Amino acid sequence: NMVISPNDVENTVENIKFLESCGFYVKAYLEEGNRWTFQHVESLAKQLSLLIDYYLHRPNQKVSSLLRNSLFFLMSDNPPVGCGKHKYAYHISADGTRYDCHRCMPFENPPHLRISEKYINDLSNVPKLNEACDNCFISYFCNLCPASNAARIERPDLCEMYCMQRKVLYKAQSYMILRMLTECPNHCLLTN
């Protein structure tokens, strides 16, 4: 697992190449929180473009999760379902307190992504990040985690940045598939 922070976003491709050269499959995630800026998201978009070129020239290389996770949602007959009470009955902290989600527990509810008290024990009523989500083409898998939404919902700056990050990722993933279909139809991502 590799977490991409704003501080090292410009090294994303080199870091993935290095880890893959060591024999690892790279599951990459974006750091959550308030340190991302528009410039960091622009750097991420440039890195994703370079990463697409890297994989297009390696048809047998397994593609990092950074460029593939949500595509499987798009290609599946079964749309994704977010977690919550319907998946897990409850979570118990070390002191015996019951929570809807592990993210609601005090040690996993950090100040920079604090879940509001009104959602701590009832994630079933967490709204989407904003009204624009209702008409967004990726909303159904962007808003899957009610705890994640609850941590952002009262912070418009975090909602906007999260939205930008998701759109950059999903557009890059779609672009990669289109390029693979035309330039590299024998890529293992398409044939497996």
In short:
By secondary structure, the protein is mainly alpha-helical. It contains eight helices and four strands, in the order βαβααββααααα.
Would you write up a description of this structure?
The chain has 192 residues and is mainly alpha-helical. The chain has 8 helices and 4 strands, in the order E-H-E-H-H-E-E-H-H-H-H-H. The longest helix is centred in the C-terminal third of the chain and has 28 residues, at 156-183. The protein is elongated and about 50 Å long. The model has no long low-confidence stretch (mean pLDDT 84).
Give the topology.
Layout: E1 2-4, H1 12-21, E2 28-30, H2 38-56, H3 69-75, E3 91-92, E4 98-99, H4 117-120, H5 139-142, H6 146-152, H7 156-183, H8 188-191
Helix pairs in contact: 2-7
Q: What keywords describe this structure?
A:
two-stranded antiparallel sheet; elongated; 8 helices; two-stranded parallel sheet; 192 residues; 43% helix; single chain
Question: Radius of gyration over alpha carbons?
Answer: 18 Å
Strand order of the largest sheet: 1-2
Q: SSE string, helix = H, strand = E?
A: EHEHHEEHHHHH
Structural class: mainly alpha
* Overall number of strands: 4
Strand fraction: 5-15%
Biggest sheet character: 2 strands, parallel
pLDDT averaged residue by residue: 84
Oligomer: single chain
N- to C-terminal distance: 22 Å
